[in-house]
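Handout, page 2. Input:
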Amino acid sequence: MSTVIRAAGPGDVEAICTLLHTKMNSKFSVERWRRLMNYPWLTEKPDFGKVVESDGQILGYTGLIYSDRMVGDPQRGFRKERFASMSSWYLDKSLRGRGLGKGMLLATMEDSSQTFTIFTNSSKPIGIVKALGYQVLDDRRYHWYKSGPASSAIVLTRDFDRIHARATDIQRQILADMQSMPVTPVFVEMDDRQALLFLSIKSKGEDVLWFDLLYTSDADLFTDCAPLLANCLLPDAPSVLAADSRLIKAPSEDTLCEHLPVERHYLSKSVEPRDIDFLYSELQLLDLKLD
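Output:
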């Protein structure tokens, strides 16, 4: 039996999507899995991840979603960094126990100039990725609930065209890249400060509507206005505004904090956790809940 680990190319897309549909998660159609390969924000993709090919048949896959992001802020300055978000990790049962699953992961890590992220809600790969050098990106999340009427101290803009007109060039690129994705942009203004937010709004658990922060252009402003923002954004029905700890600054002591069910992980030589958000990942492409 001839078995190799190699880069996934355009000619492998249908076989990969069929494998993921039939073996990994049949609830996701082949078309839905295909979104991992045809994301719009990077025309020249290095590859689609890595595959295990055995006797001409693709029986394993580790997906990577690449993006070029501007990292930093006006005070520190901005620079371009290449990100690679892991989208899936599957190996057929017939090939397990031979080190091929670990081999795929190692193959994805060959270019150490990139920043790698893992946002999975499954604990299965965590042990091995930690052994390979991945570090904890975040393990806590803060919650804010509706506590009163909307305040005039905070102004929200939700219309895309109006947000686009107020945005910086970097923010406009993100808006363009995310326009067809299942995310909600919101422009926030308070005390002569402003920030662009992206939220994921989905029902979880016992029909609680979660407004998960995916990105903020100003962590200080989001932290300062989060209680007011919850009053403006959240409906009267059970709902919560939530943000991972790395995306904000230290909130007030009475802010509810929880440990994440599964830690987020990353591997990088040049990017700090505070500069790693949830955009440009499988969360948008597969329309997934954050947890």
